[in-house]
Amino acid sequence: MTTPDSLETTVRADIAAAERPSRPIRWMLRRMRMWIDTHPRLNAAYRTGVGVVGGTLAIGGLLLVPLPGPGWLVVFLGLAVLGTEFRWARRVAGWFKRMLDRFWTWWRARRARRAASTAEAQRRNDAATITE
Question: 40-72 in b/e burial notation, b at 16+ Cβ within 10 A?
Fold first, then answer.
């Protein structure tokens, strides 16, 4: 069984490896994008399409947030799609990543404190039971 820390380390390593610019699929996509940039009408249509698809995903994800299911995941997917073309979306997605990392750090510390206080209360309870 893997521990949460080793799983987190593995996931972070996989993300870093996937974001390397030297990956063949990223190179192919970059070449396609450079070709699209040489055709102004195609470039405008591409940016419009990316904006519509990414915006629809992000807004649809926000509508799904109160419901059970992958609402936030869809929002992040929409921001990722928008981030392929728009710098503001990359900045927002980066900010969300940082805030999510801060939240998980806080959450783990909170759980550790709660576990420690529960264990301490249990020890006091056991000690009180033994002395009676």
Answer: eeeeeebeeebeeebeebbeebeebeeeeeebe
Burial tier of 4 (Cβ tally within 10 Å: 0-12, 13-18, 19+): exposed
pLDDT at 104: 83
Return the CA Rg of the chain. 23
CA atoms of 72 and 102, how far apart (whole Å):
16
pLDDT tops 80 at residue 132: no
Closest CA to 59 of 88, 85, 81: 81
Q: pTM surpassing 0.85? A: no
* pLDDT tier, 45 (very low <50, low <70, confident <90, very high otherwise): very high
DSSP code for 118: H
